[in-house]
Amino acid sequence: MKLLDMTRKYGNATHEYPFAPYEVAEGFRGKPEYTYELCIGCTACAVACPSNAMNVQLNEAKDKLVWKFDCGRCIYCGRCDEVCPTGAVALGDNFETAVRLNKEDLIETGELELQACVRCNVNFTTKRLIAYCIENFINVGWSKEQIDHKAVYIKTCPTCKKEESVGLVVGHFYKGGVVR
Amino acid sequence: MNDKMNKKGDIFINKLKEKIKILDVSRMPEEQITITVDRADLPETVRMLYYDMGGWLSTMVPNDERQINGNYTLYYALSMEGGKMSYDDELPAEDKCWITVKAYIPATDPCYPSVTRLVPAAVWYEREAYDMLGLVAEGLPDPRRLVLSDDWPDDLFPMRKDAMEYNYRPDPVDHADEPEYKFLHPEGEGLIDVPLGPLHITSDEPGHFRLYCDGDTIIDADYRLFYQHRGMEKLAENRMSYDQMGFLAERVCGICGYAHATACIEAAERAIDMEIPRRAQAIRIINQEIERLHSHMLNIGLACEVTGNINAFMHIFRIREFSMELAQLVSGGRKTYGNVVVGGMRRDISAKEIRKGLELLQTMETQLKEVWEAVMEDDSQVSRWKGVGILDRQVARDFSAVGPNIRGSGFKRDTRYDHPYDFHDAIEYEVAVEEGCDVYAREWVRYKELLESISIIRQCFEIMPAGSIITNHNKRIIPQAYALANNEAPRGENIHWIQHGSAQKVFRWRCRAATYNNWPSLRFQFRGNTIADAALIVCSMDPCYSCTDRVTVVDVKSKRSKVLTHSDLKKYSQTLKHSPLKDI
């Protein structure tokens, strides 16, 4: 009997959800939201993701870098949010992640344009990542000449950089008469 | 000399030395002592520590160390805390410690004398050691398979380092060729064999029970579990970094996952002697206690529901919702997942959250007291709990039961109290103990712990120091260093044992969930009760599940059988009318 009185005392315990929105606490860790405009394709999220829900890979034609997020694998730990340098991936409030019938609907993608190496013309990173670096150079107060000089360097792919450095070293010693 | 005598655990070692040749003693970390003995001395050493000196078997780790020293190794970890059979039978706090008995098993002759004959608590561990590593316990009374399925290839032992790729799975055997699992069967006339399972009712977890009944009374029981063995230990040691491992450990359990994550990470931290900031310690405790709140309320609710008290169940679940809200507030999710990392925590608690949290605790406390009072006044409810599922004190002692299960039988056994970890040294609280040994006592223990949890969270909120929540010590993993970490999960003591490997990866991770120590004694709790109480008894042990999907009843004499549906059994458990066994 006491329990029935209690029911009357506390009234309705249920929420109106889904007919009214359900308020979550501040700082709730919901589904990671992706802002395509901010993504630079640095792959930090893909490296951090413990459950491999996020992946950054070249597409089949190897002309675009594809950011891919499979919500079905996500464990909502928020590591991606922590490591993202631009805030392109940030945890939101969304907890309604169900899809109907098609599992593919759980997957989100974003395609990023690639930057070709200025020397060998092979794609090696995204244009946005280069732009992000240059923007940072401006922010730390580098002059235009310095930036133009460095831009060539950062638009060179790692393989070419390696070859160039080896070339420089060899050239140096050759001039100095060490290598004969 | 004097200095040497004062070291923790020396009193036990000196006593052991009188009878047993100890090959080596090491302390790593300080309060965890490892003694190495010859494998022939293993049973007697464990027995002496267990029964003569008041140890409890916390875990046993079989390990493949062939690449390190050419042997397999067994580690029997005992928690030295006193037998606790009477009030004064307890060790003083400064003598409590962990003693791990280590024995080498040569790779060419992988067998050892069974400890189970002298210490029954080791039975599951030794059965698992055979399944996983092919180590044969000579003289083990019950050498059936435990973890792996019956059609698993005989010569494949998955935890051996050279056994298999972690994602390889042997082809299943055709159902007709599958070997039959031999259930223990009591002898006698007119016994009815009642299988319960393969899926248990409330929490959708698989487990198969055989209840042997005389009329309505259960004479004996046997069970087969591990239908969903996921091979996590193997998975972690092959490819996970420590950053990922905590998140994997969380997935051990759907309810007390946080306790597993903390225990796992703390084992890794203790092995390299890493101290974490006090604030992070306090937040770990808060999250664990929140977990206890919602887990215990779930259990009390279900114990009401299984006996037909739906009204109380609904009220308790309504209050449970506040604890979920609290979890959301302090951890960002309704489950407290994804917060623990090696070295501290990932998420701090703000002053605003603390204020809101304190309000929620207040609401929870008042409403909980109201509902519990009403439930206790309900004679029909209390009579269904009283005297049911007795866990005999000697059985509890023999099988090293843990958690509310053993505290309901009058043992003051709580790992927060025996081996305080983290912030617990700064907090005042009482260990909830009840003498009844029955379901009623265990639910009382849970209720008292709910109030204690609320008080612990409150204390943490109030006295937790400010500062960083993650350590900035740049400590390296030491290969082969090992340690165990203990943790009082809602269901009892969780033990994780970690041995570091090279390349910042784990070499061996042994996870022992609380219920693992409780299962072997369940058989004794069933005896003498009726079928209607079977679901309740399992529920009161809180193994994450409590009823069955489908029950087949077989009359051994007439060979007739009857399949009961989920609702048939549930209805009978709740109303006690129209016995489903009447017409067979």
Summarize the SSE layout with pairings.
The complex is a heterodimer of chains A (180) and B (584).
Chain A: H1 2-10, E1 32-34, H2 44-48, E2 54-58, E3 64-70, H3 79-83, E4 89-91, E5 107-116, E6 123-126, H4 127-139, H5 144-154, H6 158-176
Antiparallel strand pairs in A: 1-4, 2-3, 3-5, 5-6
Chain B: H1 2-5, H2 10-17, E1 22-27, E2 32-37, H3 42-52, E3 55-65, H4 66-69, E4 71-80, E5 97-106, E6 111-113, H5 123-133, E7 136-138, E8 192-196, E9 208-214, E10 217-224, H6 232-239, H7 242-250, H8 257-271, H9 278-306, H10 310-331, E11 340-341, E12 344-345, H11 351-377, H12 379-385, H13 393-398, H14 404-407, H15 415-418, H16 439-463, E13 482-489, E14 492-500, E15 506-512, H17 514-526, H18 531-541, E16 550-555, E17 561-565, H19 566-575
Parallel strand pairs in B: 2-5, 6-7
Antiparallel strand pairs in B: 1-2, 3-4, 4-5, 8-9, 8-16, 9-10, 11-12, 13-14, 14-15, 16-17
Question: Your description of this structure?
Answer:
The complex is a heterodimer of chains A (180) and B (584). Chain A has helices at 2-10, 44-48, 79-83, 127-139, 144-154, 158-176; strands at residues 32-34, 54-58, 64-70, 89-91, 107-116, 123-126. In chain A, the strands form two sheets. In chain A, strands 2-3-5-6 form a four-stranded antiparallel beta sheet. By secondary structure, chain A is an alpha+beta fold. The termini of chain A are far apart. Chain B is built from 19 helices and 17 strands. The radius of gyration of chain B is 24 Å and the shape is globular. The model of chain B is unreliable at 545-559 (pLDDT under 50). In chain B, a hairpin with a 2-residue loop joins β11 (340-341) and β12. Chain B starts with a helix and ends in a 9-residue tail after the last helix. Chain B is 39% helix and 18% strand. Chain B has 584 residues and is α+β, with helices and mostly antiparallel strands. In chain B, α11 runs antiparallel to α16 (439-463) and α18 (531-541) crosses α19. Classes of the chains: A alpha+beta (180), B alpha+beta (584). At the A-B interface, α1 of A face α7, α10 and α11 of B.
